[in-house]
Amino acid sequence: MNAQAPIIPTGLRIIGVGSALPPKILTNDDLTATMDTSDAWIRERTGIGQRHIGGTTSGLATEAAAIAMERAGVGPGDIDLVILATTSPDYICPGTAPAVARDLGLDCGAFDVSAACSGWVYGLTVARGYLLQGMERILVIGSETLDRITDYTDRGTGILFGNGAGAAVVQADPGATADIVGWDTGADGNYVHILYSEHDGVLQMDGKEVFRQAVKAIVRTTERTLAMAGMTIDDVDLVIPHQANVRILEAAWKKIGFSMDDTIQILERTGNTSGATIPMCLDQALDDDRIAAGDHVLFLGFGAGMTWASALMRWG
Ligand code: UT7
Predict the structure, then answer these.
(1) Contact in structure between 139 and 109 (CB atoms under 8 Å)
(2) Residue 272 Cα, ligand 1 centroid: separation in angstroms?
(3) Do 89 and 218 belong to one domain?
(4) CA distance 36 to 254
(5) Is residue 148 part of a domain?
(6) Annotated active-site positions, please?
(7) Is 81 found in the same domain as 189?
(8) Which residue among 121, 151, 292, 299 is the one 20 to 30 A from 127 at the CA level?
(9) Do the domain assignments include residue 2?
């Protein structure tokens, strides 16, 4: 950050994105050794084909962030803050972000955001606040090692979760060519116990209730963000949603009117990677040339808490 002449940004631009997956893969067929299930059932009921396991949350985050920084063409001295969304931190205390900043050679603030699968979108909105206060460049990372809190003998949860990380370098855009034009964050703590883990425990879930609440949250947060932007679904070029089960998206899209053709999906090869899913999907979208300057991209998170968050971004 330039302390002499702080810029007053009026917009926000994503200038580099990266992702990381640990090499070890757990296929649906592998799971049939530890639970009564089948590849056909998991694919049909969730859309998941495999998930990655292993690694550490800080290690995957560092790998994804290093790629994002290289693609952005920035060095350690250019980053003003690290915001790391995770629901599976390396330690209960301290947060994981300081270790990531250390391993990247950064000299800046670093903290975790704990908002489960909505965490990366929460982090993006927090980053926007810091940019408005004069910072120039922020790493917003989502990283998870959910295999440490998943019971792979429980067919209610073990089929869903996997590890991964995605990172974005977010930069102030004084000209506001790029910006978040609408956003929404929300939570309903009445639903804490439909998806949770105790200290040293594993994820416990009422799958049917999570499914129902997720669909409601997606519809509600999309409406609020579009209303703030003064836009309709026809203005949205691409949707990058959190993904836990493809049927959740199909049910929500039926209500909202989005099409799967305009939706980025990585669920089949990653499973549910909580806070890492959306930045990893963004990386996939950029790799596939799915985003052009001026497009409106909707980031859509929902998950344990219940929490939800969405942000509509005009791409620079
Ligand atoms: O980020 C948020 C994280 N979590 C979620 O979004 C989870 C949301 N919920 C879900 O994705 C779904 O509820 C599950 C995938 C967890 C379960 O799917 P479902 O369609 O709700 O299945 P169900 O619990 O209604 O079970 C249907 C049948 C049952 O058999 P019967 O009673 O009809 O004979 C289950 O015993 O399927 C059986 N079943 C399975 N069979 C094979 C349940 N899980 C499995 C399984 N393999 N893994």
Answers:
(1) no
(2) 14
(3) no
(4) 32
(5) yes
(6) 117, 242, 272
(7) no
(8) 292
(9) no
Q: Is 4 helix (H, G, I), strand (E, B) or coil?
A: coil
Structure-block tokens of residue 135: 């910072």
Question: ∠ CA 7-9-15 to the nearest 5 degrees?
Answer: 105
For residue 10, report the distance from its CA to the centre of ligand 1, in Å: 45
Mutate to test the pocket of ligand 1, among 211, 212, 248, 281 (most ligand atoms within 8 A of CB): 211
| Atom of ligand 1 minimally distant from the CA of 242 | 1
Within 10 Å of residue 294's Cβ, how many Cβ atoms?
11
Give which of 22, 109, 15, 108 is closest to 63, Cα–Cα: 22
Q: Report if residue 165 sits inside a domain.
A: yes
Closest C-alpha to ligand 1, atom 11: 245
The domain total for the chain is: 2
Spatial separation of the C-alpha atoms in residues 245 and 268, rounded to whole Å: 10
- Residue 143 inside a domain? The answer is yes
> 51-94 pLDDT, tens per residue?
999 999 999 999 999 999 999 999 999 999 999 999 999 999 99
Give the chain's length: 316
Span from the CA of 162 to the centroid of ligand 1 (angstroms) = 17
Q: Quote the DSSP letter at residue 261.
A: G
The pTM of this model reads: 0.96
Do residues 97 and 55 make contact, with C-beta atoms less than 8 angstroms apart? no
**pLDDT tens-digit series, residues 166-208:** 999 999 998 889 999 999 999 999 999 999 999 999 999 999 9
